[in-house]
UniProtKB/TrEMBL annotation:
EC class name: transferase
UniProt KW Disulfide bond keyword: no
Annotated source species: Candidatus Blautia stercoripullorum
GO molecular function list: ATP binding; protein serine/threonine kinase activity
PROSITE patterns documented for this protein: PROTEIN_KINASE_DOM
The protein's name in its UniProt record: non-specific serine/threonine protein kinase
Domain (Protein kinase) ranges: 1-244
The keyword Kinase is annotated on this UniProt entry: yes
Gene3D superfamilies: Transferase(Phosphotransferase) domain 1
EC number(s) given by UniProt: 2.7.11.1
UniProt-listed Pfam families: Pkinase
The reaction(s) this protein catalyses: L-threonyl-[protein] + ATP = O-phospho-L-threonyl-[protein] + ADP + H(+); L-seryl-[protein] + ATP = O-phospho-L-seryl-[protein] + ADP + H(+)
Amino acid sequence: MSTVYLAAEEETNRQWAVKAMRKQGICDFEMVKQSLLAEASILKKLKHPGLPEITEVIDRENAVLIIMDYVEGWSLDRIVKEQGPQREENAVDWAKQLCDVLSYLHTRNPPVIYRDMKPSNIIRRGDGRIVLIDFGTAREFKGGQGKDTLCLGTRGYAAPEQYGGRGETDERTDIYGLGATLYFILTGHDPGTAPYEICPIRRWDPRLSPGLERIIQKCTRKNPEERYPSCKELLYDLEHYKQLDREYKRGQNLKWRGFLAVFFIMICTGAGALGFWRAGEKIRENTYDLLLLEGKSPGGQDPEESIENYQKAIGLKPWDGRAYEELLEFFLWENQEVEDQSLEEGISFFSVDEEMEMRKALGKSPWREKSNEEYLRENQKDYEKLAYDLGLAYFYSYQGTGNKASSRKWLQIAAKARPSEKLEDSQIQRAGRLWKIAEYYGTLGIIDPGEGLLVSYRDYWTDLVKILDQELEGNNRLQSLLACQELEAQIAANGSDFRKGGVSREEMEMQIDRIEEALNNMEILESDPDGEYTRKMKDKLSACLDAVREVIQGVYNQENIQKGRGGDYGTDTE
């Protein structure tokens, strides 16, 4: 909403930063102007070595100028991008300085909530001091509002409550941003870029401090109640993070000693060892079943508790497919967040966070020699069934639109399976058809100098229609709806490419007519399994038919216009 200039005072040659906003070219000038003046009003009340000071505010009819300290240095964003992840000592020093700045802000009367903590807003001066700049989204905390008026912040660094409807921002909001910033400084992985995740830092570098990993995870909890309540408590842990390291190592040693003790007892008992093992297996089985039961999220249970129960069950028996299957089903059908309104819109949503939990479930536990996926692979039928379900989740539901590339591995496994009580022949054939599309998805329209077109949009269209044919001939309503959804979506997204590939207008319109007929003839009862979801999905697809027809009309009308000019489509001959 403004431009920042570097200015020099003529008499003293002192440098200043001048934030300028002019009325020309700005919509809602008065509203933006008030926002800029509000920023200035907050900063004028503050005096801290970690904050720039405002010298003067010039408010004119057509412009606003804010003159403030010029902070010379590099942003932490630039430092990490040019130098790579920083040493732990540097990261902790900067985080402690930021804690001091935030503590100052949070103890004003009223408290000031910064709300845009991120590396690009933090300048490291030449003397090593940290300065926090850009107060455009800051607010004075009033309390009792329930939620913020505006949703402000930077994706990846903004806490969940900043997106509106999840409570009012407070000190813990800034603590979340500080945790995300510390994560970026230590790992070099930006949570502000896809897939917008903050995973344990030692996944990127096992040499990093377990204590700092624990601190960052606590800072970035989705639930504000689970974060540090104040920067004072966060600062204490930052000053003692090496002590947290020692506690972690002590815990690991105790686990190892406990294992050795049990192993020694089993050897000493000799003949009783077999009975001891059987009793342990019985306990394991009962605990596993109980965790699955508790994972089904009875009313009022926190979804994170359900996920934790499933993860514990997988840790107990990584070779059993039930826990993986129920965890994936939980993500697709139960754990739908309010903001994406997945069920209301007829979309099964498999989010980035849910994908990370599935990766964690298939990953390696610290106390095992192999990954959980390797254990499950030994149980071939369970592994193939999970591969089928996970392949479909990626193909159709990832981020609400699907990720064909990520589905390839899993669909290939399912496509090469043999029919069993876990995976029927029709499911294997479906996996094969989808795998074919996923396999060449990245080469659509690409020309190989030696071989010509690798995969044409004509081929893609033919395979999409085959999938629709086979699903409409079957008796699985959900799969039929998914096939209809895929064809509608691909016409809307790639209509022009299909036309260039030789698909006629009549072919496209015929398939849309088939979809409309199939939807009109499809009877869904509320008592059916997933009846509410499939009904809403059917209604959504029906509502989109006219829009898809308009896309087709637009694609071929554009072709006619180009022909009227005497040129090929996409070539300007005027």
